[in-house]
Design brief:
Distance between the termini: 41 Å
Number of helices: 9
Largest sheet: 8 strands, mixed
Strand content: 15-25%
Length: 262
């Protein structure tokens, strides 16, 4: 039997994150739950049973993300899997208190900050699973730095290419592990984000939860560091061509590092 893993899932109170947490907890893994609502976290913890650890942080606030990482490091010497699932598409408040674009901060910068901070406890044979999307677009550096405004889809698509870019770059920087993989869990799944953003019921969430479980645990992803998995096509695929443009990648990575305060 596979050893029970310690798995942190961000955005675990709704949608794919919640269903993935339920699936992994039911299999006996130790699931650490992150959310930005204490009431929702408490409800999910009760539903899962046992005494799952819950962590409260608003990913629009990088100081809260750093505090989250510090708390986890104080409680855990080893983390087997980090699933960076938390994300935002449509929001009435597009700026963070610091004046940055909330879509880029939540979808790209916050998971980067969290992952970098948790590297000391991520095992060499562990995995970082980043939520990408079929919607990807070249990153406007001025928009990333919040010098120009984007509509919801523009910011979302660019933020998802940006997280795919830093996924492949982290894999390159850490060839001995952990595995870093970007995953499009499936287009228009029945999450709150899809319902509010597109006004459709969406497809079965189990499509997304299943691929996140596989990316976190299965052998097929053990040697996939730096790759992008497109669950719409059911295969590893090339991300947007801009992810292979060395100048674009270098510029995006520099902006991410600057915004992360490195």
């Amino acid at each position: 039997m596979t050893r029970a893993k310690t798995i942190l899932i961000t955005g675990a109170t709704d949608g794919i994150g919640l269903l993935t947490a339920r699936t992994l907890a039911a299999e006996g893994h130790k699931v650490l739950l992150h959310g930005r609502s204490s009431d929702k976290l408490a409800a999910v913890a009760r539903a899962l049973g046992g005494t799952p650890e819950t962590y409260l942080a608003d990913f629009a606030r990088l100081d809260e993300v750093r505090a989250l990482a510090k708390t986890i490091l104080s409680r855990h010497d080893r983390l087997d899997v980090l699933i960076n699932n938390a994300g935002v598409y449509k929001t009435s408040q597009t700026r963070t208190p610091e004046g940055l674009d909330v879509r880029f901060v939540v979808n790209t910068i916050a998971p980067y900050v969290l992952t970098q901070a948790l590297l000391p406890c991520l095992s060499r044979d562990g995995r970082v699973v980043n939520l990408s999307s079929a919607a990807q677009a070249p990153v406007d550096l001025a928009a990333l730095r919040c010098e120009v405004a984007l509509d919801h889809m523009g910011a979302y698509a660019q933020s998802k290419l940006a997280i795919t870019i830093w996924t492949q770059e982290m894999a390159r920087q850490h060839p001995d592990g952990p595995v870093f993989v970007a995953v499009n869990p499936g287009s228009l799944l029945a999450s709150k984000m899809v319902k509010e953003g597109f006004g459709v019921a969406g497809n079965d969430l189990r499509i997304g939860a299943d691929i996140l479980r596989r990316a976190a645990l299965s052998d097929e992803f053990a040697k996939a560091s730096g790759q992008y998995y497109d669950n719409d096509g059911g295969r590893f695929a090339n991300p947007h061509a801009a992810a292979k443009d060395t100048d674009h990648v270098a510029a995006v990575m520099q902006a991410i590092r600057d915004l992360a305060g490195e």
